[in-house]
């Protein structure tokens, strides 16, 4: 009978590891988390040190019952859950739930890839549980429960049932909501640049005017947004007419080359994937959502049947470390030399430093477990989506270990004999492929304007012919809506959440109806998302703050490092949060949800929304505030036709200066002072009285 019990989280992982160990080991799965905070109760004693109460999840009861019997007779129990805080916490929960086993039997083993060597090495170096990691995960879970469980009922009461708030998800919704406001408030404008076509020796080439009479044509405008800076270009020419005089003047000029700069430019490869960059690249190149990417990556990590053998194809996919082991770097270098040539392998293998804010634990980057297992060789054993993702991971890793690409770059400046204009053109040609042989960049760097273009042999002081000059129209564009890749990039940049949470955050905010996935992949805020965000901003400023949410992540890192106790961090957080919660419970007003109607806006023909204010119901353009279209409704919900005020002989009883005017509002006719808004006196009157005034006015 097996003397050693190895517990993992998933049956696939169980199946793969079973192939590597002999009969003295019994491998079993916990099927994920087996304990959690209760669903129908807060589960955190806020009055006694925030002590959590954990209960077995429904499926966990049967699993623990079976594991407990095996654990009781086992000599050793190896906890082989994932190598991160979540995995450490699952291992701790197992030790707490398996009551029949002596605690001295439990040992923790961790590995970053599911290969025979990795498993055997891990079994040689078992360790005790790292309670700093356990406490960091526990603190995150308690924080999320305190926020979600206590704010969500408020949203149910004030807005509508079924809503939720979250410490990280609500900030993600705010990012999308703020971006919508930034786009709506952006004022687009037209501008023009000047493009010239020059000729030398029968070869024509384009150049762009960058100065006119010593003044720069284009300027970069910096716009401070909620989460980042947005740069866009404009120029000194706002109308087509402004360019006419300039183009006319160019016809009388002679042109010459004022400078030529030639150089070799090195373009380095990007580092191997971490969770966030894998999600972003997979989204951009393959069209996979972050959730789909992580599901596929999990299957590649846990094991795929390759020619009858369960094989882990990639390293652990939840990581924010660029680290590559010395052994893997050497294997990559040997593979590159053998398959691509000596020049493609750099003399010193590249080392990528961590730049991710708050990167956790000493993980490996995401890369193949065996670089000799080329994507094409195992394509028949993979599903279509597994192949695509493995191919992406394999190529990105190989590229990260290869030599930079080299380009021959030339930059040319052109002046005229009257010193009016300065044109510039640049281009580059590929000199050495380097890493580009296996991995093409998906997009150019923001500031890169060089292209592969045909420029004739040219030297300083060479004369050129200006064959044509034309104004080129442009229009300033607002910042782009977030998509799933750019949202993850922004969350990561600000240290909001963790790689393992990004996919679930996006799924949650879409499922809750706060955010909508558009057909063109944009994430747009819904009416519900706007309302919830505004309410939370009003009463929970800290929780809705980027910097504060990032500070909490930093404090969780401190707990993981053993620098501070989890109880202290929770206590500091709850001290202020409980005050905000009490204030919101007393003062948060109910929100009226806008309802989409079939009515078209009279100004732009967009759908109109039925809204309600303290003055009654009205229709508002769905594009508000960009469009100010509005239709007043009466008490019965009928459209109020435009009514011109009727002057009466009655003097205002308040200011004694103005005459009272008969007006019509959402609630019917009323009398209002003609000196409004200086005087806001109003008087009610019956419909019969209003009809009499209207009749008398017609007779005048």
Q: What is the compact description of this entry?
A:
This protein has 700 residues and is of the alpha+beta class. 36% of the residues lie in helices and 24% in strands.
What's the total helix number? Answer: 18
Q: Please name the CATH topology of the largest domain.
A: Topoisomerase I, domain 2
State the end-to-end distance.
110 Å
CATH superfamily of the largest domain: Topoisomerase I, domain 2
Mean residue pLDDT: 92
Largest sheet: 6 strands, antiparallel, barrel
Strand content: 15-25%
The assigned CATH architecture of the largest domain is Orthogonal Bundle
- CA radius of gyration is 34 Å
Give the low-confidence spans.
444-448
Shape: flat
How many strand elements? 29
Oligomer: single chain
Structural class: alpha+beta
Total number of distinct structural domains: 6
- Helix residue percentage: 25-40%
CATH class descriptor name of the largest domain: Mainly Alpha
């Amino acid at each position: 009978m097996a003397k050693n019990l190895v517990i993992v989280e998933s049956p696939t992982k169980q199946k793969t590891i079973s192939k590597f160990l002999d009969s003295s080991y019994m491998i079993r799965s916990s099927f994920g988390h087996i304990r959690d905070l209760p669903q129908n109760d807060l589960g955190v004693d806020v009055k006694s040190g925030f002590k959590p109460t954990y209960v077995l999840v429904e499926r966990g009861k049967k699993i623990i019952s079976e594991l407990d019997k095996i654990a009781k007779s086992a000599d050793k129990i190896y906890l082989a859950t994932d190598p991160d805080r979540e995995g450490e916490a699952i291992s701790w929960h197992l030790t707490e739930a398996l009551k029949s086993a002596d605690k001295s039997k439990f040992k923790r083993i961790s590995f970053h890839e599911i290969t025979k060597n990795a498993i055997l090495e891990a079994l040689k170096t078992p360790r005790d549980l790292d309670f700093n990691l356990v406490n960091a995960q526990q603190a995150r879970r308690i924080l999320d429960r305190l926020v979600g469980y206590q704010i969500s009922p408020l949203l149910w009461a004030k807005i509508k049932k079924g809503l939720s708030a979250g410490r990280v998800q609500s900030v993600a919704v705010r990012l999308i909501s703020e971006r919508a406001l930034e786009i709506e408030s952006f004022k687009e404008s037209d501008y023009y640049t000047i493009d010239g076509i020059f000729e030398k020796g029968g070869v024509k080439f384009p150049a762009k005017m960058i100065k006119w009479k010593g003044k720069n044509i284009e300027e970069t405008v910096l716009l401070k947004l909620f989460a980042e800076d947005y740069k866009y270009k404009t120029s000194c020419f706002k109308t087509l007419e402004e360019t006419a005089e300039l183009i006319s003047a160019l016809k009388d000029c002679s042109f010459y080359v004022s400078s030529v700069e030639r150089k070799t430019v090195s373009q380095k490869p990007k580092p191997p994937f971490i969770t966030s960059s894998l999600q972003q690249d997979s989204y951009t190149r393959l069209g996979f959502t972050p959730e789909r990417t992580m599901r596929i990556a999990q299957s590649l990590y846990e094991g795929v049947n390759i020619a009858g053998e369960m094989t882990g194809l990639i390293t652990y996919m939840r990581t924010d470390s660029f680290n590559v082991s010395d052994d893997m770097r050497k294997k990559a270098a040997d593979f590159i030399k053998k398959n691509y040539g000596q020049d493609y392998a750099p003399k010193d293998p590249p080392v990528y430093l961590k730049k991710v804010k708050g990167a956790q634990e000493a993980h490996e980057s995401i890369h193949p477990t065996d670089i000799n297992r080329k994507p094409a060789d195992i394509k028949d054993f993979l599903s279509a989506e597994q192949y695509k993702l493995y191919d992406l991971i394999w190529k990105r890793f190989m590229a990260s270990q290869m030599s930079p690409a080299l380009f021959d770059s030339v930059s040319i400046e052109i002046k005229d004999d009257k010193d009016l204009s300065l044109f510039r053109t640049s281009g580059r040609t590929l000199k050495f492929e380097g890493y580009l042989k296996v991995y093409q960049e998906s997009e150019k760097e923001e500031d890169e304007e060089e292209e592969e273009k045909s420029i004739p042999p040219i030297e300083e002081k060479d004369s050129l012919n200006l064959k044509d000059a034309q104004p080129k129209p442009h229009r300033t564009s607002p910042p782009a809506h977030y998509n799933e890749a750019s949202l993850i990039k922004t969350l990561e940049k600000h240290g909001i959440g963790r790689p393992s949470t990004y996919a679930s955050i996006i799924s949650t905010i879409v499922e809750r109806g706060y955010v909508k996935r558009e057909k063109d992949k944009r994430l747009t805020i819904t009416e519900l998302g706007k309302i919830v965000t505004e309410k939370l901003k009003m009463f929970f400023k800290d929780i809705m703050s980027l910097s504060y949410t990032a500070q909490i992540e930093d404090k969780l890192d401190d707990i993981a490092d053993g620098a501070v106790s989890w109880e202290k961090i929770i206590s500091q957080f709850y001290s202020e949060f409980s005050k905000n919660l009490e204030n919101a419970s007393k003062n948060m007003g109910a929100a009226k949800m806008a309802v989409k109607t079939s009515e078209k806006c009279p100004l732009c023909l967009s759908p109109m929304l039925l809204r309600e204010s303290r003055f009654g119901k009205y229709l508002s353009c769905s594009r508000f505030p960009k469009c100010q279209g509005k239709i007043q409704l009466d008490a019965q919900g009928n459209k109020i036709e435009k009514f011109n005020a009727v002057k009466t002989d009655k003097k205002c009883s308040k200011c004694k200066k103005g005459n009272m005017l008969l007006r019509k509002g959402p609630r019917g006719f009323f009398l209002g002072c003609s000196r409004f808004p200086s005087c806001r006196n109003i008087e009610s009157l019956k419909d019969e009285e209003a009809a009499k005034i209207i009749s008398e006015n017609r007779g005048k």
